[in-house]
Amino acid sequence: MTDLPAIALSVRQPWAWAIVTGFKDIENRSRAAVSKGDMRPRPIAIHAALGMTRAEYEDAADTMARIGVTCPRPDDLIRGAIVGAATVTAIVDRHPSPWFFGPRGLVLANARAVTPIPAAGKLGYFEWHAGGMLPPPLPWMRTWPNRAAQALVLDILFNREDGR
Prior knowledge:
This protein is of the alpha+beta class. It has one domain. The protein contains five helices and six strands. The longest helix is centred in the middle third of the chain and has 14 residues. The chain is globular and about 55 Å long. It starts with 6 loop residues before the first strand and ends in a 6-residue tail after the last helix. The model has no long low-confidence stretch (mean pLDDT 90).
């Protein structure tokens, strides 16, 4: 824990996962969030926010699929914890990364995952403190369909070789 920055940024899942696994090189924020959150280039811990709705998950998973990244199941994503660290190297208004959606982007480098450390999150940059427990997956997360299995069933139903 001592090798992690004392300052963290809370990011909703599955975006936090995409950052700490090295896929997502930009964290998007509003102009107000950047200025009011005193965001500037520096090393930060990545906090996976406690909240994640089904709609947020589906939107993020679809966006990742278009970029070529397979998102983990929602019940496999850690929430309510420090999950990694990265260095914010710049704050930009535009960027060629497919992860940049704007209006502002925190350019990330040296991202890495760590063993999750339960902690409460806050808006903007914040000084984090370990404490609490990891929350269990929500009911909708535990019953998430296996899209690959669904696709296989549909393929079998509609592309049968026997002509039925």
